[in-house]
Automatic annotation (TrEMBL):
It comes from Oceanobacillus kapialis. The lineage of its organism: Bacteria, Bacillati, Bacillota, Bacilli, Bacillales. It comes from the Bacteria. Residues 24-275 form the EAL domain. The chain holds residues 371 to 645 of 645 of the full protein. This is EAL domain-containing protein.
Length: 275
């Protein structure tokens, strides 16, 4: 009986592996076609200056509108896109689209904002990254100071010389660079002071008020950013209390559901300031 049971379990295990594998392959072939079928969309989440109250930035967040499965969140396909190399073409599309959209907002007579674009490791390590971005800025007519690239700690902290060089070229071009999800990865404080990064984004896990140490961590990140001449933004801000605390601690900006969920560009214009 026991043997029989094991055999059945094993069979179930086997089927579920092959089913997972099949669905992964389907997903991969769907992902390959998604770009040409125009199934990607960018939603944007506003970023607010805590002193002036103005919207100063919009983070572009990728959405895959799958014909059968509906909206697929980025965390469900970005790593597949990385593994297959598809992230390069997808990332190019994201960059172009975000710059184009930002230029469109500017043409609508709103005060200019900075659009920020998430970069994956593979994208960041492209040899022609800087010239590609230069080309996209030329094509869309967006001034470099209105584009920010978000990288992660782990991307910034490996192969220092190469990274430093790329970051310097990007800064020379005039685009901004932020470190996303700051505090969740490894980062060396020495590199942080050497790398020409313009902003730290405090990871949303530190907004959890139930963790008593979080306030101390947030305070320290804010003070450190300012000491290193960087701006600092809190991610994942959901409550009035969190905003009061961030203001008290002189955090520059905030982003989170309290202000708005990520939305299609047309649904955000009412938040943009004029004059
Ligand atoms: P991220 O760059 O850290 O983006 C912030 C994520 O937190 C977004 O999830 C956003 O919807 C979510 N969020 C914003 N405010 C709140 C809040 O108040 N509370 C909570 N609980 N969550 C909040 P999303 O859109 O699912 O994106 C997840 C991640 O996928 C992003 O994290 C980013 O790492 C990656 N990603 C998104 N778009 C792209 C892209 O175009 N390229 C690359 N390489 N990665 C992307
Ligand atoms: Mg981000
Ligand atoms: Mg983040
Ligand atoms: Mg992230």
């Amino acid at each position: 009986v026991i043997k029989e049971k094991h055999r059945n379990n094993y069979k179930m295990f086997e089927t579920s592996i092959s089913e997972n594998f099949k669905s992964m392959l389907t997903m991969e072939s769907d992902l390959r076609k998604a770009l040409q079928k125009e199934q990607f969309e960018l939603h944007y989440q506003p970023q607010k200056n805590l002193i002036t109250g103005e919207i100063v930035g919009m983070e572009a967040l990728l959405r895959w509108n799958h014909p059968e499965k509906g909206y697929i969140p980025p965390l469900d396909f970005i790593s597949l896109a990385e593994r297959t190399g598809l992230i390069i073409d997808i990332g190019d599309w994201v960059m172009y689209e975000a710059c184009r959209q930002n230029k469109l907002w500017q043409g609508g007579g709103y005060d200019p904002v900075i659009v920020s674009v998430n970069l994956s490791a593979k994208q960041f390590h492209q040899k022609d990254l800087v010239s590609k971005i230069q080309h996209i800025l030329n094509e869309t007519g967006l001034e470099p100071k209105y584009l920010e690239l978000e990288i992660t700690e782990s991307m910034a902290m490996t192969n220092e010389k190469y990274i430093l060089n790329t970051l310097q070229q990007l800064r020379e071009l005039g685009v901004l660079v932020s470190i996303d999800d700051f505090g969740t990865g490894y980062s060396s404080l020495r590199y942080l002071s050497v790398f020409p990064v313009t902003k730290l984004k405090i990871d949303k896990t530190f907004m959890d008020d139930n963790q008593i140490q979080n306030k101390a961590i947030v305070k320290s990140i804010i003070h450190m950013s300012h000491s290193l001449n960087m701006k600092v933004i809190a991610e994942g801000v959901e409550t009035e209390e969190q905003i009061a605390f961030l203001k008290e601690e002189n955090c520059d900006e905030m982003q989170g559901y309290f202000l708005s969920k990520p939305l299609p560009p047309g649904k955000l214009v009412h938040l943009l300031s004029t004059g």
